[in-house]
Amino acid sequence: MASATDLIANDIQFEWLLRRGDTALVLGHRVSEWCGHSPVLEEDIALANVALDLIGQARMWLSLAGEIEGQGRGENELAYLRDAWDFRNFLLAEQPNGDFGQTLMRQFLIDAYQVPMLEALKGSKDERIAAIAAKAGKEVAYHLDRSADLVIRLGDGTAESHRRMQQALDALWSYTGEMFVSDAVDTAMADAGLAPDPASLKAAWQETVDAVLDQATLTAPEDEFAHTGGLTGRHSEHLGHLLAEMQFLQRAYPGATW
Amino acid sequence: MKKEWPLWEVFIRGQHGLNHRHVGSLHAPDAEMAIKNARDVYTRRKEGVSIWVVPSAQITASDPGAKDALFEPSMDKIYRHPSFYDIPDEVGKM
């Protein structure tokens, strides 16, 4: 079996896997915060489904990360027993839900990235990565279908829904650039044929985003400024609050199971 | 203006089912969203491989009060069941 272990250092792979797993976990938790609070019952269930898909993806990435790290940490230890500075998710994923429009816009902007990322990962030289990508890719294709559809409907909806969607886009736009920044970890993974260079995903993302925003009658800000730091553990204030809630049970009652 | 989304009836064809079966209803602004919502509400546990949605308003129902007149007369006409014939195997599922 062509294992990634043979190709590049474990700590690089571990770091890269945390980026995938933490982004899925943090976004999944954010979406799960809507459970019981969505505007309509049907949307409540749909969002819970998306959250569960993402948490399932996080489990796969973090399990593999723990395996490769080889320090005896599994998905649970990585999810519940790390502090904010050890998380490697995109800053975009941890941004607060805001209103329903902001949640949908955040989802759409990440879905549009995840689709080409997972598509490329299906060709990873590490068959474990390729297998996760194949499973997650089907889920994310539906997420994008749904989030893009809703962004269009609400952007091109009433004056009020249009205003809220434009506001959401303006608020989140500066967090999208981080997804396409390549650092030494990304370069090593790309050189080993394990993962695409994030910069190579920009064109596909841009094409999806442009087409959807155009239909949604929304305008992306011109500003190219990009917040970064998520991939090196420098997070916005929001992640700590999210973890406090997500990790409470394991922190207060270590090892609790049911 | 009516603020509530219209109601849709949902029909799902199961993994091994031959025909779509009514599974419930939901609200959605249009048919496309109704399909998406049906996917999320009614196929979470691998219930199906195909979804139909129909606006509930488009369904014409028989009068529950006319139940006796409509259905009672067939009760004693057992000869209408094809159970008095041997059906050749080649006919397949009827």
TrEMBL record, chain A:
<protein>
    <submittedName>
        <fullName>Phenylacetic acid degradation protein PaaI</fullName>
    </submittedName>
</protein>
<dbReference type="InterPro" id="IPR012347">
    <property type="entry name" value="Ferritin-like"/>
</dbReference>
<dbReference type="InterPro" id="IPR052703">
    <property type="entry name" value="Aromatic_CoA_ox/epox"/>
</dbReference>
<dbReference type="InterPro" id="IPR009078">
    <property type="entry name" value="Ferritin-like_SF"/>
</dbReference>
<dbReference type="GO" id="GO:0005829">
    <property type="term" value="C:cytosol"/>
</dbReference>
<dbReference type="GO" id="GO:0010124">
    <property type="term" value="P:phenylacetate catabolic process"/>
</dbReference>
<dbReference type="Pfam" id="PF05138">
    <property type="entry name" value="PaaA_PaaC"/>
</dbReference>
<dbReference type="InterPro" id="IPR011882">
    <property type="entry name" value="PaaC"/>
</dbReference>
<dbReference type="InterPro" id="IPR007814">
    <property type="entry name" value="PaaA_PaaC"/>
</dbReference>
UniProtKB/TrEMBL annotation, chain B:
<keyword id="KW-0503">Monooxygenase</keyword>
<keyword id="KW-0560">Oxidoreductase</keyword>
<dbReference type="InterPro" id="IPR009359">
    <property type="entry name" value="PaaB"/>
</dbReference>
<dbReference type="InterPro" id="IPR038693">
    <property type="entry name" value="PaaB_sf"/>
</dbReference>
<dbReference type="GO" id="GO:0004497">
    <property type="term" value="F:monooxygenase activity"/>
</dbReference>
<protein>
    <submittedName>
        <fullName>1,2-phenylacetyl-CoA monooxygenase, subunit B</fullName>
    </submittedName>
</protein>
<dbReference type="Pfam" id="PF06243">
    <property type="entry name" value="PaaB"/>
</dbReference>
